[in-house]
Design a protein that fits this description.
Keywords: NADP, Oxidoreductase. By secondary structure, the chain is of the alpha/beta class. The protein has a single domain (about 5-210, about 275-300, about 320-335), classed as NADP-dependent oxidoreductase domain (TIM Barrel, Alpha-Beta Barrel). Helices cover about 40% and strands about 15% of the residues. It is built from 14 helices and ten strands. It has helices spanning about 30-40, 60-65, 95-110, 130-140, 155-170, 190-200, 235-240, 245-255, 255-260, 265-275, 290-295, 305-315, 325-330, 335; strands at about 5, 10-15, 15-20, 45-50, 75-80, 115-120, 145-150, 175-180, 200-205, 280-285. Strands 3-4-5-6-7-8-9-10 form an eight-stranded parallel β-barrel, surrounded by six helices. A two-stranded antiparallel sheet has the order 1-2. Residues about 335-340 have low confidence and may be disordered.
Length: about 350
């Protein structure tokens, strides 16, 4: 397993991060979840991503239990704050009250004194940005958080946070961004990626497999396979149906010869594609079975040739979304209070 620096910070992450959105505490029971995390460790993965809102805290608890026997300094734990963790008016957002209380609750569930990376899960336009940044900075000063990041923020929002942190004289600054990014969803490329490269902010991308669509397991004109996310319980089907479609599935099957030529599985091709992007520090994979972890981790260190990359663009063509405005649509607080996004 190769490791990469998180932007220009001194922190190194494994190229593959193991994440437990929509799995631990929701689609996957305790013992299978523990087996997946053990498989991740066996594959050399050292970076683990979760959030307080995933299964309303259960995902953090399972991750903390699985990592308890592991030397704490040998792994990097990332979690997030912003989305609702209760019914009260202060159980959400990026107010000082919610950030402080949420961080302490996450540390308890994870069974650790600190998290390596603490991320604002979405932008909160209902809280003054200086209040948010000062609260995060205080957590860093207290040693409860080592590095700060954001998720699904637009380029102007990231720019505003960087400028304000400088004006306030804060010691800590944003070093990570966690956006959705895959062969089909490239909306960070026009604005977010250039800004982050200039400012030394590393990308820790989620959904590199587009909810499993890029694995090729969903066949056009056929029912979704048993056990797949599209037919699972919980919120999985709601998310996967956003990207399922006849023409899309036909095009995805056209990627199979390219994967074969690269000596990779379809899943490995999709993950390796995200890792080829300058500025991407790690790609987050999820799994319901240990063998999925092992397969996806095999994308680490894979290098795609120019011919393969050109072939991918030719196959997917106009189905690729590059509209930077879609980042704003994805992260809008008013649209995400009611759902636990990745």
């Amino acid at each position: 397993m190769d490791h990469r620096r998180l932007g220009r910070s001194g922190l190194h992450l494994s190229e593959i991060t193991y994440g437990n959105w929509l799995t631990h505490g929701e689609l996957v029971g305790r013992e299978p979840a523990l087996e997946c995390i053990r498989a991740a460790l066996d594959a050399g993965i050292t970076t683990f991503d979760t959030a307080d809102v995933y299964a309303q805290g259960a995902a953090e608890q399972v991750l903390g239990e699985a990592l308890r026997p592991v030397r704490r300094s040998s792994v990097e734990i990332a979690t997030k704050v912003c989305l609702p963790t209760g019914d009260g008016p202060n159980d959400r957002g990026l107010s000082r009250k919610h950030i402080m209380e949420a961080c302490h609750a996450s540390l308890t569930r994870l069974g650790t004194d600190y998290v390596d990376l603490y991320q604002a899960h979405r932008f909160d336009d209902g809280t003054p940005l200086d209040e948010t940044l000062i609260a995060f900075d205080d957590l860093v000063r207290q040693g409860k958080v080592l590095y700060l990041g954001v998720s699904e923020w637009t380029a102007p929002q990231i720019r505003a946070a960087l400028d304000l942190a400088g004006e306030l004289g804060l010691r800590s600054r944003i070093v990570a961004n966690q956006p959705q990014y895959n062969m089909l969803w490239r909306v960070i490329e026009p604005e977010v990626l250039p800004l982050c490269r200039d400012e030394g902010i590393g990308q820790v991308v989620f959904q590199p497999l587009a909810q499993g669509v890029l694995t090729g397991k969903y066949q056009p004109g056929r029912p979704a396979p048993e056990g797949s996310r599209a037919v699972s319980g919980g919120r999985g089907p709601r998310f996967i149906r956003r990207v399922l479609g006849g023409e899309l599935l036909e095009r995805v099957q056209g990627l199979r010869p390219l994967a074969d030529a690269a000596g990779l599985s379809m899943a490995q091709l999709a993950v390796a594609w995200t890792l080829r992007q300058d500025g991407v520090s790690s790609a987050i994979i999820g799994a319901t079975r240990p063998e999925q972890v092992t397969e996806n981790a095999g994308a680490a260190g894979a290098r795609l040739t120019g011919d393969v990359l050109a072939g991918i663009d030719a196959v997917l063509g106009d189905l690729v979304d590059r509209d930077p405005a879609k980042t704003a649509q994805m992260m809008a607080v008013k649209d995400t209070w009611s759902q636990a996004a990745g």
